[in-house]
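ping. complex inputs:
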Amino acid sequence: MKRRDVRAVILAGGRGTRFWPLGRAAKPKQFLRIAGPDPMLLETVRRIRPLIPARKTTLIADARQTSQARKLLPRLPKECFLVEPEARNTAPALMLATARVWLENPEAVVVVLPADHLICDVAAFLKRLEAAVEAAARESALVTFGIPPTSPATGYGYIRHNRGAGRKIAGTVFYPALGFKEKPDAVRAAEYIAAGDHAWNSGMFLWRAGVFAQKLELFAPELRPGWTAIVAALRSGGATKLKSAFRLVPAVSIDYALMEKADGVLVADGDFGWSDVGAWSTLAGVWPRDGAGNASRGETLALDASGCVVWNPGRLTALVGVRDLIVVEAGDALLICDAGSDQKVKDVVEALKRTPKFKRYI
Amino acid sequence: MKRRDVRAVILAGGRGTRFWPLGRAAKPKQFLRIAGPDPMLLETVRRIRPLIPARKTTLIADARQTSQARKLLPRLPKECFLVEPEARNTAPALMLATARVWLENPEAVVVVLPADHLICDVAAFLKRLEAAVEAAARESALVTFGIPPTSPATGYGYIRHNRGAGRKIAGTVFYPALGFKEKPDAVRAAEYIAAGDHAWNSGMFLWRAGVFAQKLELFAPELRPGWTAIVAALRSGGATKLKSAFRLVPAVSIDYALMEKADGVLVADGDFGWSDVGAWSTLAGVWPRDGAGNASRGETLALDASGCVVWNPGRLTALVGVRDLIVVEAGDALLICDAGSDQKVKDVVEALKRTPKFKRYI
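pong. complex structure:
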């Protein structure tokens, strides 16, 4: 296999309030040690190390998150951190990161990875990633992973793809994408699953920098002024110029701005134990469980208790006669939440914002 | 009303594991600030102050609990603390405390009060107590309060009394007791409530010291050797002698050993907002509640949550989509318990005892 110039772009700017009270405004999910022993951002960078050297890794985030990320990765050169002029969703961020690569080498393959996803089978992931790099390099395609769905989830976007037209590249089958779908309602999600040709949108993308520029030119005319301005700003090196250029890009996701509009998108199965760790209850499937299905960080004593997820490291939690609870002890704040209601944790944060005396808990 | 020599004997030796993890082996219920702003023992001593001066108050408990009680009541003279040679239930403790009073003044009225009960209407309590002192002094009777039952509880003993034969003494009606009943099963408890002449046994008793000695002589022959030996030991002042004398008394409750055997027992209604605060869920009826029936110490944010009791002072607790939970954050240990299962909290302590690594949480 040819030695490729591969660059990682890690989206490190997630905000998220769904892991309150452990996650705070100043410490979003990618900085939490919830999935492994280290913060998710650190695990994301380490995971790709066998394929992509540290110096070819770029972390893109706003100024505050970048400063946190630098503390976490003190040996990474300064050039690896790219500060977004402002948080404007993924399209502007990925245009900026890709433009920087494009100016250096349009043939380089960009691998876009969210900083806050969990991948359980790293060997399988690296194998698929290597193949996806080949596909992006050889096929002049935008490439993505579709997660084989395990339920009709309404919290993910879906990618429809043609499973009859798969082609093997470097040992992995790639399918032509037929369409990107926004987060569906429950009825539609059930239809997607029944159809058998829909996968969850993983938010991981690969492209040659030059292919990205080309697809953008062909399929996303509303991105063109921003792209041109960003490239010009990078060439001249002015921060103010870059900020203005950045603002020319609509604040939308790259899925919406480019992926769902472009032709020639290829999808490979993301069959490597992926989880976006979207809320506390997902950790029930990640942490080891006791015989009654309780998953915990910290010692737990369960008497007639089952299905609970407990974060209380270094302390004892006794569960008595309770079912399917999320319990999170975070020092100054404690969350007790029905597992089926854990999407409401963000409502807690909204309620805190409305109550002056509670603002310090955000 | 005649000026009486009234002595309080406060049973300060309760052990109890039902308030774990706040209550520990080294800090039982009477030392917890769960019912009012101060530990229950302190509130018990303060409550009777208008009727009984501090120097006429005796706290009886084992050596460790006595040392804790002395820290809590540093201005109380040393003589007010009576150390039980060992914990042997209430009969030996009350014989010792009463014998000490008897040697000083057989006419003195002894008021026996548990240190870990809550009384909401202190004015009503003091009025009843004053009348009960009169009844004990004038009638040569053993006197007690029967709590008007609000449910067919199986956790209390009951006192049957003749409500047709009440006599007013000092403004309060006293009824002749017809029998003390052990904690009943649910069927029997329902019968007691339906009958209308059963009250909960409050564990509060009054007697003249000389009357106690007399009733013991007449109705409790198995207590006589212990009484004689305790009196002799107190006269001679020897600690070893007292210890031996104490051991001559069967380790049973005074209810069982004397009250249910003696004649002439009088019962007044304990209609003063009494609670024995028997478990965490009883605090739902003691602490202020929010509109959804959540009672808490510490700030609480409840989203679609009701009927919870939360102990987490100085911190924020968020409750989301949960019902009828007990939540207790006690620093090194956290309890999450179904409110209907709070009698199982003592099983948690038993389980901790069986697990070496958890012993430090007992």
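The interface with chain A takes residues 20-21, 299, 301, 303-304, 308, 312, 315-322, 325, 327, 329, 331-338, 340-342, 344-345, 347-348, 351-352, 355, 357-358, 361 of chain B (CB under 8 Å).
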